[in-house]
Design goal:
The chain is an alpha+beta fold and about 220 residues long. Helix 1 packs across helix 2. The longest helix is centred in the N-terminal third of the chain and has 13 residues. It starts with 8 loop residues before the first helix and ends in a 19-residue tail after the last strand.
Amino acid sequence: MPGERLPSEDELSIRFHVSRMTVRRALDQLVSQGRLRRVQGRGTFVAEQTPQPKATGITRWSFERIDRCENETRQILRIEEVSPSLRVANALRTMPGEMVVQISGILYDRDQHLGYFVHRIPRLIVPTIDSWELGQDTLPCFLAKRCSLEFGKVTERVRVISAEEDAVELLGVEPGDPVLYVDSLVFLVSGIPVILSDTAYRGDRYVYCGLLHPLMDETDV
């Protein structure tokens, strides 16, 4: 309830069987999201939630390819908790021993394989994986609705690689065939990274397109 005082970091650490540093990081994230507030000398409290103005800048289409195939569908293969690799841990700034939720699946254009994806999210900021029902929502849209997260910038890297074992098995390509590989990192407005995604597309069925807008001075808005 708003105004309720949270237990101490030590108490939360014991209750959830995690380190005190992991608890502190989770609390810092919730404070940056406006869900909690710290009062010097008194502790951490549940914050009053006030209606937020409609966000500007990044919108839903920012998380979807604007050249998305009209008949593109998605099949989730698995949602699981895993120990992150060094690359994932560094990108998401997870604490030692902290798990991530990993979502993997296939993209289809009609009945043909178009690509596959792997998303990772820090376990501390998402709901239990048993309750995940994404439907056709993008992952950021799902998390915005379920967890009231507000997203900021997205960094993205696009490159062509030779098909390796995963692509050969999941996309039906030959070893060495060109695959368009896109990795992206989505941040909260507070600057905390929350979603690391890797997506591989068949080079013969997908074309990457982008839409760029001119920069405007604040006086022009």
